[in-house]
Amino acid sequence: MLKHLYDTDCVTWSPQGKLFQVEYAMEAVKQGSICLGLKSNENVVLCSLKRQPSELAGYQEKQFKIDDHMAIAIAGLTADARVLCKYMRTECLEYKYTYESHHPVGRLVFKVAEKSQHKTQSGAKRPYGVGLLVAGIDPNGVHLFETCPSGNYYEYKCQAIGSRSQAARTYFESWFHLFEKSTLEQLILHGLSALKKAIMEDEELNERNVEVGILGKNQKFVHLNAQELKDYIAKLETFNANTQIQQE
Amino acid sequence: MIFNSEFSGQQQHTTQPIVTGGSVIALAYKGGVVVGADTLCSYGSMADFKNVEKIAQVSKNTIYVSSGEFSDFQQVVRELAKIDRSALQYDDGVHPSPRDYGNYLARLSYKRRCKINPLYLQNVIAGFHNGERYLGLVDIYGTYLESNFVTTGFASYFCKAIISNYWNENCTLDQAKQVIRECFKVLFCRDCRAHDVIQLAYVDEQGTHIEQPERVETKWDFSGFKNRANEKLHTQ
């Protein structure tokens, strides 16, 4: 991206009506490693590709549980993500303390969006450099939201954000009409197939660099463990997206 | 000038209720919950306000009544209605369930109790949500209980036996209403601060229905009253 005039701070509009600082913040999200989410009538699945800063390091976690009924996958500045994660967890706890029930998902995303927007309208602040995919279940149904540094939020049937996410989105465009009625296993396999489209030629999916989290109407948020990941990745070889069954 | 310290600008603590409402009785029935309360607010022992419609609808499927200090009741109604209204600003169509209200009121009551300035109330929250009926009691200390039947005030002493004998949780609406009417008859006879005009309200799948106040039937034409047998003895 070329440098522009009018991009010094958030309180300066460009003549074309853009806030460049906000747009640059969205770039930070696009540089993060990919994470995607997809939902059916009963379940939401989050899949992410974890990055390893060096061979000596562990892999950076990208999915965080907010509450039993809600989880996020992040792309962008992990430090900023931690702040939003803490905020969401605190809000859920307070809601539970007061009402003994789960925080409605859309409402929490709205609060995060308001918080994010606040950072785009001050001379002394910068936007959060992280995009969240928020998966949640509440009385209104099964939800998948995306939040942006700009303070916008959108609800999706399936979405991918981060590096090379367009490849995953292209996969989704072909097959998302099947997701509503998919079983949990089919949903996971679709998610991993989409993830596979987005990795580089010399990379491969394995149980160390992939993170899968699942959430359902009767399923609290849980990560798949290493063995389960291995099994699903193995099943990818013979998964037919159209029929959603294993081919021989 | 003599300053009465009770009326200085310091924070006051509620030590006694002034204008009080009477007992509340609520029963679950097959398909919903029915609540009954009388229409009297007493000023100490004076029956001051005799046609007060107390049963408040706080949301589409939740009703709230309480016995105790009436101004506290009115304030709580405002607080609960505030929650429902502020839910509108999120544009997501999600409204608090009856249980949410019950828990919120329990937290509110407990907070006030911890400051030794209680909401001088025994509260009943009744509702119907997602195919399930809900009935909760929150007392002056913030104790929260969910139950199939709930009584406050004197009804807790006089009416539990009647309820045990004539009610079960799967009775019809009319049966439950009849049990409540019987209870208020007994209360009118024995509780000095009770009134014979009551109001019933029920919540079911279709929503809340608050009925017009009705007078409970009480019998005063006993021959002993009419013939004044006692008085004759003394004058003769």
UniProtKB/TrEMBL annotation, chain A:
Belongs to the peptidase T1A family. PANTHER family: PROTEASOME SUBUNIT ALPHA/BETA. Coiled coil: none annotated. The keyword Translocase does not apply. Keywords: Cytoplasm, Nucleus, Proteasome. It is found in: Cytoplasm; Nucleus. Pfam families: Proteasome (PF00227), Proteasome_A_N (PF10584). Its main location: cytoplasm. InterPro entries: Ntn_hydrolases_N, Proteasome_alpha, Proteasome_alpha-type, Proteasome_alpha1, Proteasome_asu_N, Proteasome_sua/b. This is Proteasome subunit alpha type. GO terms for biological process: proteasome-mediated ubiquitin-dependent protein catabolic process. The 26S proteasome consists of a 20S proteasome core and two 19S regulatory subunits. Signal peptide: none annotated. It comes from Paramecium tetraurelia. The lineage of its organism: Eukaryota, Sar, Alveolata, Ciliophora, Intramacronucleata. PROSITE patterns: PROTEASOME_ALPHA_1, PROTEASOME_ALPHA_2.
TrEMBL record, chain B:
Pfam families: Proteasome. One of its GO terms (biological process) is proteasome-mediated ubiquitin-dependent protein catabolic process. GO terms for cellular component: cytosol; nucleus; proteasome core complex, beta-subunit complex. Keywords: Cytoplasm, Nucleus, Proteasome. It is found in: Cytoplasm; Nucleus. It comes from the Eukaryota. The keyword Metal-binding does not apply. The keyword Nucleus applies. Gene3D superfamilies: Glutamine Phosphoribosylpyrophosphate, subunit 1, domain 1 (3.60.20.10). InterPro entries: Ntn_hydrolases_N (IPR029055), Proteasome_beta4 (IPR016295), Proteasome_bsu_CS (IPR016050), Proteasome_sua/b (IPR001353), Proteasome_suB-type (IPR023333). Belongs to the peptidase T1B family. The 26S proteasome consists of a 20S proteasome core and two 19S regulatory subunits. The 20S proteasome core is composed of 28 subunits that are arranged in four stacked rings, resulting in a barrel-shaped structure. The two end rings are each formed by seven alpha subunits, and the two central rings are each formed by seven beta subunits. The catalytic chamber with the active sites is on the inside of the barrel. Non-catalytic component of the proteasome. This is Proteasome subunit beta. It comes from Paramecium tetraurelia. The lineage of its organism: Eukaryota, Sar, Alveolata, Ciliophora, Intramacronucleata.
